[in-house]
Amino acid sequence: MSARVDVLTAGYVGDRVASSVVLVRENDVIVVVDPGMVADRSRILEPLHALGVHEDDVTDVIFSHHHPDHTLNAALFARASYRDVWATYRDDRWDDRCDVLPGAPSVSLMDTPGHTPQDISTLIETDQGLVVCTHLWWSVEGPLVDPLASDQAQLESSRAAVLALAPVMIVPGHGAPFSPSDLPV
Ligand SMILES: [Zn+2]
Ligand SMILES: [Zn+2]
């Protein structure tokens, strides 16, 4: 049992900002993590279509947290359930949070506060090992101290909790995927 991870768009920050947007698939569950700001929504849709997925096929959207750069394009996915730190939302239903995605036992949510009090990370068990989508890092280049963090000490303890899981790959909020061994010590 494992899930497949594809990075649709690697994010960046600078004069402009884009979110890292990730596709996760397991069984019939098709998840998009952080469909936020991008240069053009084709930066999400074209890689999605290239993988044979139509936006109406997406069953779940996960928000790492509530900032617009990670949520702006959420409405591209008309049939999805939306998941965040608090709950699952679909149409006019507001239901309890599921820590493990229904139908996707390899995909789970972990509370990782620090950037905001409402940050979660998505943990994905793949054939290669654990992959984590998280805003605990903007990119492998830093910044080590998050200038927007609500609580830097909490952020650092969340980072340590994620690294303790020994992920093989981290997809940061605004950068390309990296291995924990690429992080500065
Ligand atoms: Zn943010
Ligand atoms: Zn961000």
Description:
The protein has 185 residues and is mainly beta. The chain has one domain (4-182): Metallo-beta-lactamase, Chain A. 11% of the residues lie in helices and 34% in strands. The strands form 3 sheets. The protein has a 7-stranded mixed sheet with strand order 1-4-5-6-7-8-9. The protein has a 5-stranded mixed sheet with strand order 10-11-12-13-14, with no helix packed on it. Strands 2-3 form a two-stranded antiparallel sheet. The longest helix is centred in the last third of the chain and has 12 residues, at 152-163. The mean pLDDT is 97. The chain binds zinc ion (ZN) (2 copies). One zinc ion is lined by residues 67, 69-70, 135, 173-174.
Secondary structure topology:
Layout: E1 4-9, E2 12-13, E3 17-18, E4 21-26, E5 29-33, H1 42-50, E6 60-62, E7 81-83, E8 87-90, E9 93-96, E10 100-101, E11 104-111, E12 120-126, E13 129-134, H2 152-163, E14 169-172
Bound molecules: zinc ion (2 copies).
